[in-house]
Amino acid sequence: MSEDKNILARARRGELPAFEELVTLYEKRVFAVALRSSGSPEDAADITQETFLRAWRGMDSFRGDSGFSTWLFRIAMNLCVDHARRKNAAPLTQPLVGEDDMERPIPDPAPTPEQRLDNSELGRELSEALNEVSEEHRQIVLLRDVSGLSYTEIAETLEISEGTVKSRLSRARLALRDTLLRRGNILPPAPSKQPKGGGQA
Fold first, then answer.
1. Domain of 57?
2. How many CB atoms lie within 10 A of CB 201?
3. Which segments in the chain show pLDDT lower than 50?
């Protein structure tokens, strides 16, 4: 991490090559969050670009009170919220990204027919379900389950306590599960069965 601090120090001095190294370090995670939030690779690319543009312009005002990644994701989440408001919370239509997609900024354009069917249907349902939960719950899921931020980082990003992060994440996952149940995407748990003869004397 000392190397990251060195890069950050150089970037804060206005060294563009150092900032470009920070872009390389974080752009895939920012893109993944933006993609799942916006549902559009094109919009996600715009959000990612604007995130780093604002970060570069604001490097001289970054005091280091929180980690660079925390500050960066705060910018990204604010842009995601602004984008959703501009779109008037329109339903998402693009598949959600998975772990492999975080390793490349552009999804594979040529999946097999079977993959296309599975990914498009399941991804669309997950996207629409995520869009139905509150913005508060969607943010927490994006930061934790997409970006993989720690509870501490999320608390700093959203400016809430770690306890609030944990309770909000729990409620968000329950809300998402309830939405998927209601939409028929997952099956409810099977009712427990009494052993035969269990009630006889």
1. 2-104+119-182
2. 3
3. 1, 89, 91-119, 201
The answer to whether residues 168 and 139 touch, using CB atoms and an 8 Å cutoff, is: no
Count how many domains the chain has. 1
Q: How far apart are CA 81 and CA 32, in angstroms?
A: 15
pTM for this structure?
Answer: 0.62
pLDDT digits (tens, 9 = 90+) for 119-147: 456 556 666 777 777 888 888 888 887 77
C-alpha angle 77-25-136 in degrees, rounded to nearest 5: 15
**Residue spans of alpha helices (H) in the chain:** 2-12, 16-38, 41-57, 68-86, 113-132, 135-141, 151-158, 162-182
User: Do the domain assignments include residue 194?
Assistant: no
The token pair at 122 is 């399941």
Instruction: Tell me the CATH number at 74.
Output: 1.10.1740.10
Q: How far apart are CA 39 and CA 90, in angstroms?
A: 10
